[in-house]
Amino acid sequence: MAHGLLNYFAGGQANIYSAGIETHGLNPKAVAAMERIGIDISHHQSNHVDEYMSIEFDYIITVCDHAAENCPVFPSKSAVRIHQNFSDPSKIEDTAEIVEAAFDQTRNEISEFSENFVKSYIAS
């Protein structure tokens, strides 16, 4: 969701990459939550951070505490690391309505963070 929202708010002003310390594939509930606000992430992939070790990043954003604690050190010498923990709605086991609401809430929190990040660091 963060990848899609950062792309949306950056509007082509930045190259956005997304990866994790583990790969699990796209969560269909995350795809659906993004579709509800008109952003299609169905073409995104679940990549591993090792695939991006040769890229010189400006910013490295971690979106969960586990990733922040276990994210490898990138060779990017000047990359600014930013951490913002978001709840993981995929861990919720409840009714479909409650799970959907949790995905929407997390999406909205990531959206606010992404918009503020782009305004502060990317927008010209």
Sum up the structure in keywords.
two-stranded parallel ribbon; 124 residues; single chain; globular; mainly alpha; Rossmann fold
Structure explained in plain terms:
The protein has 124 residues and is mostly helical. It has helices spanning 2-10, 28-35, 65-70, 96-122; strands at residues 59-62, 80-83. Helix 3 links the parallel strand 1 (59-62) and strand 2 (80-83). The chain starts with a helix and ends with a helix. The model has no long low-confidence stretch (mean pLDDT 91).
Order of helices and strands: HHEHEH
> What's the total helix number?
4
Question: What's the CATH H-level superfamily name?
Answer: Response regulator
CATH topology: Rossmann fold
Could you describe the largest sheet, including whether it forms a barrel? 2 strands, parallel
What is the total tally of β strands?
Answer: 2
**Major β-sheet strand ordering:** 1-2
Instruction: Categorize the overall geometry.
Output: globular
Into how many domains do the coordinates divide? 1
Under the CATH scheme, the architecture is: 3-Layer(aba) Sandwich
For the record, the CATH class is Alpha Beta
| Global Rg | 14 Å
Mean pLDDT: 91
Residue stretches low in confidence (pLDDT < 50, at least 5 long) are none
